[in-house]
Amino acid sequence: MKRALLLLCALSAAQAASAADKEAVIGVAISITGPAASYGAQQKAGIQAALADLGPGKLDVKIEDDASTKEQGITVFQKLINRDKVSAILGPTLSNTASAADPLAQAAGVPVLAVSNTAAKGITDIGNFIWRDSLTEKQVIPGAFKKAQEKLKFKTAGVLYGNDDVFTKAGYDVMAKTLDDLKIKVLGTQTFAKPDRDYNAQLTALAGAKPDVLVVSALADNAAAIVAQARQLGWKGPILGGNGFNSPAFIKNAGPAAEGVMVGTSWNSLSKDAANQKFLEAMKKVGVNPDQFSAQAYTGILILAEAVKQSGGKTGREDINAGLAKVKNFDTPLGKFSFTPERDANHEPSVQEVKDGKFQIVQ
Amino acid sequence: MGQQILNGLFVGSIYALFAVGYTLVFGVLDILNLAHQAVFMLCAFIALALVESLHLSIWVALPLAILAGGLIGIGLERLAFRPLRGRAGSNISGLISSLAMATVFEAIAAQIFGPDISRFPQGTFPDVQWHPGEATVSLLQICIAGISVLLMAVLTWLLQRTRLGRSIRAVAENPRAARILGIDVDKVISVSFFLSSALAGAAGVLFGLAFNSMSPDVGRSVELKGLAVIILGGMGSVPGAVIAGFAIGLVEVFTVAHVGSSYRDIVSFAVLFIVLVARPRGLFGQIATREA
Question: Starting from the edge strand earliest in sequence, which strands make up the sheet with A261-265, in order?
Answer without folding.
Answer: A185-192, A156-162, A213-217, A239-241, A261-265, A350-355, A358-361
